[in-house]
Every structure is written in structure tokens, then in C-alpha cells.
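Researcher: Please translate sequence to C-alpha cells.
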Amino acid sequence: MPPKRSVDKLSTEELRQALIQRQREDRQARLRNYQKTGRVVGVEPPPTQTNLEGLRSKQLEDVERERLEKKQREKRRWLDRLLLLLEVAAVVGLILLVFNGVSLLRNLNREVAASLQQPTLTPTALIMAVVLPSGHTPPNSPDGAQPNIAEIPEQLQPLVQSMDALPLPTSGPEQAVRIQIPAIDVDAPVVQGDNWEQLKKGVGQHSGTPDPGVDGNVVLSAHNDVYGEIFRNLDQLQDGDEVILFTDKQAYTYKVEKILFVEPTSVDILAQTTEPVVTLISCYPYMIDNQRIVVVASLVE
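Model: Translation complete:
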């Protein structure tokens, strides 16, 4: 048993423990006294130092557990926020993907539609002619009036003969059927095609040229000294004179704008235009026929 120390030499904790021990001994003495007298059957033993330490440990564990739970809740809160941000980003990405897909599909449809769209067709004569129509030898030549093969280059003569053999367009209600030029007393039928045989019937319309009244160049030709001499006096026309073309439905009036004298090979006269015009062609001069006279007239609105 350790020797007893003076009270002055005890620490505060030792004094507190000694006081607790003394109180416990006094309480136990009283309890034994009460038990002997029969006033107390039994009492629960006071808490020991071990119980106090266990209670303190339990409180520490509760505090530590609460701290850990709080830390876990904080982690879960940040994790929930991160998941929410990821969900928002995924939704935004999906919206952008759908928008880009719709834009891509719209552009693709537009490109396909543009590739499938047919251009607006305008009547365009294929300038395959080697010389201008109505060419022939004069009726007073040794062999009489006949197609003037001499004005066609020799290597191109088979091409001209093959073109003459092409089928003629089928007549329609919008095609020219008659022409009148009041200033020179012309009133003649119009037929499709301007080869040698067709020009025997009247004024021939060059194949591939448009109908009267529409944009483009209506090319008509006739002889000047054979088969009725229909275009003999084209050189007498003046600016402003009328050229009237009839179809089965209506009449179209054109006004003369210019008169040209060109070589038989000036096939650019057959080229199409963006405005409605009529071009009249015949051999020139009278009974010589080594040139062409060309009259151009524009449609009167």
C-alpha cells in the first residue's frame, strides 16, 4: 500500500478522484446501514470509473460517427450536383445534335432538290446549218433553178443532205400557219421546214425555232425569184413596217427593226434570242442569188 501524501501535494485531478472515492464510500456505508434496518432492499451500484470511461467513449464514438455521416452527406451532395451537371450537359448535347441533324437534313434535301430541278427550257435552235436556207441557182442559169450545192463546202455536203432527210415537226395550234407583210403585199402560207421541197409550198419555218409570240427567234425563209417569188421585195421594207404571223388561235404583229445583207455562210443569223423576234431570209440579189437578205422584226406588245 503506497504511503499517504499530504493534501497540499495532491493535484486537482487526484483531489477530485479522492473526493469521488470518499463520497462513494460514504454512500455505500449509508446503503449498508439502510439495508440492515430494512429500509432499502437493494440499489443499483453507482457508476464506476469504468462506466464513466465507457460513457465517454460512447459519446466520442457518436460524435465521430456524426462527423463521418456529415462528411458523407457532403460528398453525396457534391456528387448529386456533379450528376445534375452531367445530365444537363447531356440534354444540351442531345438538343444540339438534333438541331444539327435537322439542319444537315434540310441542307441535304435542298441540295437534292436543286440537283433534281430541271432548268427552264427555252426554244433554242441547234445551229447545225452550214449555210442559210433558200439558197438556189437562178432560174436563168444553164441548169435552171435548183439547190445551190456549190455554196456548201464539199466535205460538208453529206451533212446537209442528211439534215434534209430529217422528219419535219408535227403541226400544232401554236405554230405559224400564215404570214402577211402589208407593205410589200405578202400573204402566204407558212409550212414547217425550209428544205428545197418545203419552200415550194410557201414560207418555211426553220426547224427548232419557237412558235410566234414567245421569246426566241422565229426564222422564216422563202424564195425571191422562183415558186411565187414570195420574198422578192424584202429589200423594199423600212423600219417600222409590220410583219404579221398567224396561228390557229391568234395573230402576232412584229415591227421591222433592221435589214442586213450577208454571205450564205452567216449562220449566226439563226441563233436564238432572249426576246421575241422574227427573222426573214431570202436569196439576194434578184436573179443572181449569191447573197442573203435578212430582215429582223421585234414583237409588238
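Researcher: Any highlights?
Model: The beta strands are 178-181, 186-192, 203-205, 216-221, 242-246, 251-262, 276-284, 291-299.
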